[in-house]
Specification:
This protein is α/β, with parallel strands linked by helices and 119 residues long. It has one domain. It is built from three helices and five strands. The strands form two sheets. It has a three-stranded mixed beta sheet, with helices on one face. Strand 4, helix 3 and strand 5 form a beta-alpha-beta unit. The two termini are 27 Å apart.
């Protein structure tokens, strides 16, 4: 099983995929994120997925790919082992639930949720 990535704190989810991408998040880093998450002001405006995947690749000598796009109900997670969701809305959890059920190959879904002022 391939390891999963850390999650974003907004209405997004990271998916550990065996093919095209290893980290997915369509959110960009904002100044507020620099207070609650491990980002710096120099990264404001960059995609969270790209920043996290690049950090992991450099640290662990990996060749993972980032997908700077939001998870949608339309895309089945058919080549995914683990999903780590770190979202703060019911709507975002509903999208993850739909993507990890039915025809999904997801073995584990870790819901490491946040609130607006924590996480």
């Amino acid at each position: 099983m391939k390891p999963a990535l850390p999650a974003s704190s907004d209405d997004r989810a990271w998916a550990s995929r065996r093919s095209a991408r290893d980290g997915q998040d369509g959110d960009v880093i904002s100044p507020t994120d620099c207070v609650r998450q491990p980002f710096s002001r120099s990264e404001v405006g960059l995609y969270k997925a790209v920043v996290f995947v690049n950090r992991l690749n450099l640290f662990w000598n990996l060749g993972w790919k980032a997908a700077p796009e939001h998870l949608t109900r339309k895309e089945p997670l058919d080549r995914v082992d683990v999903v780590i969701g770190c979202v703060d809305t019911r709507a975002a959890r509903a999208v993850i639930r739909e993507c990890t059920s039915r025809w999904s190959t997801v073995s584990y879904w870790l819901d490491i949720g946040n609130n607006a002022d924590t996480g």
